[in-house]
Automatic annotation (TrEMBL):
Protein known as: Uncharacterized protein
Superkingdom classification of source: Bacteria
Any one GO molecular function term: arylformamidase activity
Family annotation (SUPFAM superfamilies): Putative cyclase
InterPro entries named among the record's database cross-references: KFase/CYL (IPR007325), KFase_sf (IPR037175)
Coiled coil: none
Protein's GO biological process: L-tryptophan catabolic process to kynurenine
């Protein structure tokens, strides 16, 4: 069994989208601020925007009265997974289409099935590089394809799942309204097998009324659970 960490590291000053605030992770402990007189106690205060880093979108983020993070179906966030590599099939400013995804299936010999967790590699190094903000995500044909396939989750090595051409967020609303969760800012997708399946785990925190949650995204290779 081999574990691949697909999660961006968070630290003070970190930002994954120019539209988002920078992370503010305080390294001062409670004893530094005289909260505790015990020299054996070390506690840290952490403050960050929940959309920075590797995270999952809850329906509430784009749908009025949608499910918030603590109401998400956590069983959808782990299970059988595959990665589709479209990095060599498109330019950065080209959207991810149904045709591209089906071509990746044919080239890799793996095919999307019902209840899958589908990861999409759009970058040569599989996430974490500069320029990801400008890279286009899914178009309508790809979103419709995933709904037809009845997958559980779509994850990308990008900070946004859509094409970023407008502010209506139609792709987000369409996927989330069909109970397909969205994971963004994955890394190390280049370390995943292209021709076989693996397990994916990305459990959100139990945050009441939250619209997104950071996750520790992991893939497990050569697992006997598949």
């Amino acid at each position: 069994m081999k574990i691949i960490d697909l999660t961006l590291e968070l630290y003070s000053g970190f930002v994954t989208d120019n539209d988002h605030l920078r992370e503010h992770v305080l390294n001062k402990s409670k004893k530094d601020n005289d909260y505790s007189k015990s020299k054996e106690v070390e506690q840290r205060f952490i403050s960050f925007l929940n959309q920075n880093g590797t995270h999952v979108e809850a329906p509430l983020h784009f749908i009025e009265n949608g499910a918030s993070v603590e109401q998400m179906k956590v069983e959808k966030m782990f299970g059988d997974s595959l990665v589709l590599d479209v990095s060599m099939l498109k330019e950065l400013h080209d959207p991810i289409t149904k045709d591209l995804l089906e071509e990746a299936e044919r080239r890799q010999g793996v095919y999307v099935e019902k209840n899958d967790i589908v990861l999409i590699k759009t970058r040569k190094r599989g996430g974490g590089e500069e320029g990801a903000i400008e890279t286009k995500g899914l178009d309508e044909s790809a979103a419709n394809w995933f709904v037809e396939k009845q997958i559980h989750v779509v994850g990308l090595d990008l900070p946004n799942v859509d094409r970023r051409e407008h502010l209506e967020s139609d792709i987000y609303q369409f996927l989330l309204s069909n109970e397909i969760y969205i994971v963004e800012n994955l890394i190390n997708l280049d370390q995943l097998p292209k021709h076989s399946r693996f397990l994916f785990f990305g459990i959100p925190l139990k945050l009441r009324n939250a619209t997104t949650s950071p996750i520790r995204a992991l893939s497990i290779l050569n697992s006997q659970l598949i």
